[in-house]
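Usage

Read records sequentially. Each one opens with the input sequence:
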Amino acid sequence: MRKTLIALMLAAALPTVAMAMPEGPGPMGGHEGHMMGGPGHGEHGPRGKGGPFSQLDLSKEQREQIRKLMGEQWHARKDLTQKYLDKLPAADQKAMQDEIAAGKQKTQADIRAVLKPDQQKKYDEIVKKQAERRAEWKEFQAWKAQQAQKAQ
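and closes with the structure output:
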């Protein structure tokens, strides 16, 4: 029970970690974790106007190093969380995934409700493109795993 509770608490923290993802290109060159963001968008990360690094007058090299360190931390947390989630029974994993998906859908609907009609249209396009990219990434990961299995 204690392990399940810890795993669920870590899983609940994932959205917070995702929101803390540093600005800039991710491992595939995109801006994962930033729904509407482009370079320098928002007030988070080493480049932001309101983040913890905003008053440090960082050089471009320092920003890149910090972005890299924050990205590594994010990936380490994600891997650690996944390690404990994998230990959950399948039913608990499915329930958690369903709950996360429902929360995501609700948040997207709430965001969409705040937008004007022309913004909603663009938002819908962005969400659709992100879903396509995620599907392509999953397909690539499956292919990569298949290639590794063939190599053995």
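Summary fields computed downstream for this record:
- Residues 23 and 29 are 11 Å apart (CA to CA).
- The mean pLDDT is 78.
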